[in-house]
Request: fold
Amino acid sequence: MIKTQIILPIIGVIIMLSLLSCKHNPQEDIAPDLNNNYTNDSVSFQTEILPLLVGNCAMTGCHDATTAAEGVVLNNYNNVINTGKVSAFDPNNSELYAVLLETDPDKRMPRPPTPPLNQEQIALIVKWINQGARNTNIIRCDTNTFNFGAVQTIVNNSCMGCHGNSNPQGGINLSNYSYIKQETQSGKLLGSINHLLGISPMPKGGNKIEACKITIIQKWANAGYLNN
Ligand code: HEC
Reply:
């Protein structure tokens, strides 16, 4: 009798704990592949491919977790692979690549008014698929280069799908030097990527951008927002 009185609450606690740990976080993802057999030529999914997908495809109304247009969610590695539209080592059998090249605007991704990915961005996606579409996480950003060119590359890759010239979301246009300078000077841009309280965390629906990229933008700001 005494045993049951002790054991039952213990079982209850165990069940409660396991239920709590099952709570699903929409950002949940499998751990990056840290096999470390990378070369200088390896594409990094987490730091190079995912920002492109979140920045250009995972916006509200498209492939974010809430809208999931055509069941496709492009906000983390698992979801990208689970679309079934990436065939490792075989870009020509990967719909994720084919839709980037579509000339018909009704089929092309990202859909207008978001502009198509540029040649360099598409080539990087092809290279990632050719290398096996792995969940790689390689950090190779250099905080010693903090000119506007470096800032613009970060913004182009992580923000432009939602903050381009046509219909910029939240009224924040990041398509050129003076707009980027203006939003940085106001404190909004850095506040949003640092996830400061009271400012919408950016990139919306994605992970925080790498600390090293935030440092580059901060150093550029500290040096006087030069157009260099
Ligand atoms: C997937 C779409 C998306 C991406 C990618 C994105 N944003 Fe946003 N951003 C939004 C939306 C939508 C808003 C309007 C506020 C909201 O809905 O949270 C917004 C608002 C903002 C604001 C205003 C925040 C405020 O509280 O006043 C800033 C600054 C901003 N974004 C910067 C960025 C930067 C910098 C990046 C890239 C690192 C980025 N965004 C990437 C969708 C996006």
